[in-house]
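Model it.
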Amino acid sequence: MLIVFLIISFFVSKSTIRFFIYEADLLFFQQNVKKMINLKRTAVLYSFGFYNFLIILILGFATPFLFSIDLTFIDIMKIILVLNIFSMIHVSLNYLYKSWYVRLPILLVIHTFLILNFFSIHFGIYLILFIISAVILFRKIFSNRYWVTEVLWEYEGFYKWMKIIFQFSMEMSYYLPAKIRPPIFIFAKRRKLSDHRIDNLIYKSLLRKSSFFSLPLRLILLCIGLFIILPNWAKVVVLIITILGLFTSFDSILKEIKRASFFQLITPSEDEWISSKLRVQKRIIYPLIIALLLLFFIL
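Modeled.
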């Protein structure tokens, strides 16, 4: 039962707060600190009030089942406290860390420790943890005067709902912004891969679509396979065809990247594009050719 509760708590815990920023005049509230604090207080009370209303409603329907597995009224109150503690810790971590791979291990440790020790930890300790979590969260919310994190949450929430609404009609779906895939490699997301602006965009575009690698990879694997079974004179022909095929496939990939929407906005000159193309070829195609030549002499 505790393992099930551990899994459910990850999906049930609240991660953001509804701050009503779309309904607020941000400049007015930034100039009136007391009104802004009142708005934040109202936002927190509304978000956690509605959250607890849903929890109590669900637990109310599940009460016969909970009593049937020998849970007491104190245990049910502990469940409510635990979910609120997780939610407040979740929101506080969202303020501190933007990267999910930093927040997730911390949340996993806290969830696992508190839930697996659910029956051994006294109700009073959960109450103290609830108060400490609430104090930390309130201090974090009221110390942030300029609505940086809150505005981001509101825009993400607004976009999520508008995406659902816009998808009901084909005409409205065209107004949705194009979703750009993140790079395949985690460290390539924010890392600068080249000092040249166009080169950096090309590398990031290559990493966003795995289909770009399919044709060159198939050519290389086919070439290696033929090296093993063909005589030497035929290997030379295969090597030449593979090298020409790599240049042709890479050229078509770059043409597809050039037609992307962000390159239409940047509009690099033809000289910039050709010099960038040559630099990228030196870093990608030439090492592959050297590797194929080494395999030719080895096999």
